[in-house]
Amino acid sequence: MEEKLIYNAEIADLGLFIDNTLIISDLHIGYEQSLNREGIMVPRFQYKMILKRLHEILKRYNVTRVIVNGDLKHEFGRITRQEWMEAKNFIEFLQENFDEVILIKGNHDNFTKFIAEKSDLAVYETYSLGNYIIMHGDKITDDIMTKDNSTIIIGHEHPCIGIRNGERLEKIKCFLKGTYKEKNLIVMPSFNFVTEGSDILHEKPLSPFLKNRSKEEFEVYGVENFEVLYFGKIKDILAVKDKFY
After folding, report:
1. Angle between helices 81-97 and 46-60 (to 10 degrees)
2. How many CB atoms lie within 10 A of CB 192?
3. Distance between CA 243 and CA 147 in Å, rounded?
4. Could you give the CA distance from residue 35 to residue 214 in angstroms, rounded to a whole number?
5. φ and ψ at 148, to 5 degrees?
6. What count of other Cβ atoms lies within 10 Å of the Cβ of residue 56?
7. pLDDT at residue 234 above 50?
8. CA distances for 54 relative to 25, 59, 97, angstroms
9. Are the C-beta atoms of residues 103 and 45 closer than 8 Å to each other?
10. pLDDT digits over 28-52, tens only?
């Protein structure tokens, strides 16, 4: 069980399980329609995949509350027809399957509050859960270091790790375990099935919690279909990579 725990939060597929609460992040509902407008023909499959994975999590864990840690929808400046319908249906699904639904604002959620209001839900900037404070991670609030919570949980980064297999680069979604100043820090992968995310070994970080600082001491927990793959620290992965490639 220890390899599934990050600061006592249990890895539950692409989510975290804490005290009967499931935390998921970065769904980006409507992403396929955005890609279609750019000329990238992607079928609209993600919504069904999200529901399928959540059903599987509900079978395995006794969850009564769910927290969506930002970027429920994809478009920045508007709500597309796909986003409105799927996000509205998704919130209804959550309300039918969980006793409590908490939505946290991400940088793609400028209009999510209008969808949430239809279901009598608020959208929070941050949410405290025992020793954890949950926030999207696109910005650092002024009061973050004054709060009593010892562990910060963020999304936004969409971390994955690129593993080379011959000429092919396989990407695996992952959690990152590290620190931010005096606080523990957990970085969550996206609950998104259109893309794997940003390769922590080859791409620059997005979140201000990770920018302008060394990532080498962060530990990497890869996840594939509920299986947790512990890769060790980024510096050790890079040392092996440099040796063989």
Report:
1. 10
2. 23
3. 43
4. 33
5. -75, -20
6. 14
7. yes
8. 12, 9, 10
9. no
10. 887 656 655 666 555 466 789 999 9
**Average pLDDT of every residue of the chain:** 87
Distances (CA, A) of 175 to 14, 60, 146, 147: 8, 20, 25, 23
CB atoms within 10 A of CB 47: 20
Around 40, how many Cα atoms within 13 Å sit in the side-chain half-sphere?
10
Residue 74 to residues 27, 70, 95: CA-CA distances in angstroms? Answer: 8, 10, 21
DSSP reduced 3-state for 189: coil
Angle in degrees, CA 203, 207, 208, rounded to 5: 120
What CA–CA distance (Å, rounded) separates 132 from 20?
A: 14
Residue 135 CB-density burial (10 A; 0-12 exposed, 13-18 middle, 19+ buried):
buried
Q: Which two tokens stand for residue 181?
A: 């100043």
Alpha helices in the chain (DSSP H): 31-37, 46-60, 81-97, 112-117, 234-244
Tell me which amino acid residue 181 is: K
CB 189 within 8 A of CB 14: yes
Strand partners of residue 184? 151, 179
Q: Is the pLDDT of residue 1 over 90?
A: no
Closest CA to 135 of 161, 114, 113, 157: 157
* Distance of alpha carbon 108 from alpha carbon 94, whole angstroms: 20
Its sign, for the CA torsion 159, 182, 125, 97, is positive
Phi, psi of 166 (to 5 degrees): 70, -125
pLDDT band of residue 243 (cuts 50, 70, 90) is very low
